[in-house]
Amino acid sequence: MTVNTWKSLDVAVLGGGLGGLSAALAMRRQGHNVTIYERYDYAGEVGASLSCASNGGRWLHDWGVDFSKAKPVILKKLIKRKWENGEIISEYPLGDYEQKYGFPYYNLHRIDIHQVLKDYATSEEGEGKPCELLLNHKATKVDYNTGFVEFENGTTITVDLVIAADGIRSLTKPQLGITPVFKSSDSGCIRVLFDTKKVKELGLTDYSNNEAIEYWGETKFKIVLSPCANNEVISCYCFFAAGEGDEKNDWNNDVSLEKLISSCEGLDPVLVELFTKCGYDIKQWRLYVHEPIPYFYKASETGTKGVALLGDAAHAMMPDQSQGAVAAFEDSGALGYIFSKKFNLSIAEGLKIYELERKERVTKIQAASLRARENLNERIGWSSDNIKHEQKLTIDEVCGYDMKAHIDELIAANI
Ligand SMILES: Cc1cc2nc3c(=O)[nH]c(=O)nc-3n(C[C@H](O)[C@H](O)[C@H](O)COP(=O)(O)OP(=O)(O)OC[C@H]3O[C@@H](n4cnc5c(N)ncnc54)[C@H](O)[C@@H]3O)c2cc1C
């Protein structure tokens, strides 16, 4: 075991997305001094539903987050419907989910949970010193040997630990010697929202009270619909086979209703009517397949400085297991626990445990997310009864995971 005396670390979190904010919150609660540097000013934030399985929710509970502030809908089942007419094919019940895994299956609006995490990270209330959040700070240079970071606006800092939560196009990753390997997938996604009040007023089919994630289609063409924001918003992701002209890589790409409808040929007329009469905020996204990266951190030779990659920067994945943000919450939970007073690890030791804990698990989830892109039966829940091969990902291993126990074992075996 290390002989270092525990000290509170100066931590720079690069990126104020869901991953960065959760990492900041986890680290501040352990007594570290945390500053979050975000390249933008959050103006024009967009978003739709984000489901938060128990393996993510348990960490937010651990950090004292009151979920009611994020206006959750609690999911009770998955529903599979026929593409052409919405007829129910099968249901996967999640009624015993909380009892089995300890926490509910929350469905949230991305903007609500982002706001809540920002508030908890920066609030005077709660364990630890409030994090500082600096907007319009785009990190351009990161040196893991010295903890030095330079920003586009000319500011420089030197810290003990850098947590790079700078997203799928992370600028930090190449500076750690990692060349990202990714390719454009043949899938695109269009996001459309419905206001529940308007759906009711127009007398259209209302899916807001089904307490479910509902799927139309099972392959590349797939609709994923779910209510969020206290059932006030119904969110719909429409996956389709993308071609030339669908190269846009940003949610801020508005697309027309015509494009949405033509991407969903032969779809249930009930949904098409919803799109037509009350769909709003229609945005398109091209999906990319990212290969797993070789390592998740670099530490200085002295062991006293280091950079950890977190969230999409470390393990960008297809959205089809609904685990990207949840995996980022787990990453944050891991860092907070590893760098707690309980262990008194140096930065190099802690980051080694972080990688041992996170890499194998998220790589498996990443692979299963890609398989679920083309086969809904690979999705946790549905996979329980339908998938037989050995690499299958199960809802029990994802949602019932005891990460603290695993970290305890890893530290006992490796430090
Ligand atoms: C269609 C779709 C549906 C999804 N549904 C779910 C779901 O239901 N459940 C789930 O768990 N996940 C879901 N995900 C995945 C989830 O959205 C992501 O995994 C998650 O948002 C990643 O968070 P992050 O903080 O790592 O990255 P981001 O959200 O990309 O945040 C990165 C932040 O870093 C900032 N930044 C970038 N570069 C710099 C820099 N150089 N300096 C400073 N700041 C910088 C960015 O501006 C941004 O704020 C879905 C994804 C998609 C595409």
From TrEMBL:
Does the keyword section mention Repeat?
no
Q: Is this entry keyworded DNA-binding?
A: no
A GO molecular-function term, please?
FAD binding
Q: Which UniProt keywords apply?
A: FAD, Flavoprotein, Monooxygenase, Oxidoreductase
Q: Which domain of life is it from?
A: Eukaryota
The FAD-binding domain is annotated at 9-366
Describe the family membership recorded for this protein in Swiss-Prot or TrEMBL: Belongs to the paxM FAD-dependent monooxygenase family.
Q: What is this protein's record name? A: FAD/NAD(P)-binding domain-containing protein
Native species of this protein? Candida tenuis (strain ATCC 10573 / BCRC 21748 / CBS 615 / JCM 9827 / NBRC 10315 / NRRL Y-1498 / VKM Y-70)
